[in-house]
Recover the amino acids of this structure.
């Protein structure tokens, strides 16, 4: 079984503290923590899994700020393109929810 290499103290987000004594989480415990985080902050509607990313490029807007332009083949059908302030790349043990 996969065990995280950082303790729950360092892995938990400051706006959603762990509800356990400091420990090294298993992948299942960390997944439950992340599910709780997503439910608590209403993030599920903003997360897309199993949708191939066709491109992700940085673009400077007219006001001087930078955004990510992400083009995705949406799993539910159709293609979507977003301008985002941040991009999360899930690899390794984080690539499968």
């Amino acid at each position: 079984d996969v065990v995280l290499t950082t303790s729950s103290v360092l892995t938990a987000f400051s706006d959603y503290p762990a509800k356990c004594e400091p420990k090294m989480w298993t992948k299942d415990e960390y997944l439950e923590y992340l599910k709780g985080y997503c439910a608590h902050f209403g993030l599920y509607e903003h997360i897309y899994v199993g949708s191939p990313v066709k491109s992700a490029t940085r673009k400077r807007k007219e006001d001087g700020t930078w955004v990510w332009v992400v083009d995705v083949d949406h799993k539910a059908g159709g293609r979507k393109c977003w301008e985002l302030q941040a991009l999360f790349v899930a690899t390794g043990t984080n690539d499968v929810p």
Q: What stands out?
A: Residues 49-94 form one domain. The longest helix spans residues 27-41. The CA atoms of residues 22 and 47 lie 28 Å apart. The chain has two domains: 3-45, 49-94.
